[in-house]
Amino acid sequence: xxxxxxxxxxxxxxxxxxxxxxxxxxxxxxxxxxxxxxxxxxxxxxxxxxxxxxxxxxxxxxxxxxxxxxxxxxxxxxxxxxxxxxxxxxxxxxxxxxxxxxxxxxxxxxxxxxxxxxxxxxxxxxxxxxxxxxxxxxxxxxxxxxxxxxxxxxxxxxxxxxxxxxxxxxxxxxxxxxxxxxxxxxxxxxxxxxxxxxxxxxxxxxxxxxxxxxxxxxxxxxxxxxxxxxxxxxxxxxxxxxxxxxxxxxxxxxxxxxxxxxxxxxxxxxxxxxxxxxxxxxxxxxxxxxxxxxxxxxxxxxxxxx
Length: 306
Description:
single chain; mainly alpha; globular
């Protein structure tokens, strides 16, 4: 039950974004509820698949579903949820008083489903072929993979909006930029917490990204810094897919010595401030501001590496 998890879970972030973002769009409750439902289905299905693709052992402090039910059954259930969510998107027009062509909602749904899988594909390709992306490549992947669900929700909400800004501040372009900033902040924070947040370690496992061989934001930063210095310890550790906590701790110390922890924390504080500036520009939104505050890096209990 995701509702019992603090707002560090991607689904709750997306759902909270929808509820508070509706302050600017005025989507009718039946339509908004159905958008939330289909996004929830997509998110839960993606987690089932992610755990298989990443060989994750734990999910929210419990064994991953495929370890209990088997890969075949879990893949089939996840695929079923994808198709059921698509059906819900097609039915949104029936719930709205707005005259919206059902095919437009379906087009938006399929467009972002493709981008979500493209983003996931890049993440897997880099990991399995030990290719370190550039910062720009990583950011593009995040917009598709992490931002995909948020932007899918936003575009469906924008399609069925009843409020139309008189000064056009919160239009489709500015809304996209807003969600892009939020998704980037969310993913970089998640990458940071995977290595340094004590609560994250309790729910998943210690430094799980190192075991998966994942090129996260902090790992990419560290590898690029080592390349400039003619060293390659971090990528060598990543290739090992280690489960040894001592090696993981050593890698975290390397990242800290390279300034990655401090610089990532500063990046997150800047993104947080940017989010608040954009919220103010759009006329304010107390609930959305609270979400940003809940996700503040200042709230993270950092694991000491010494």
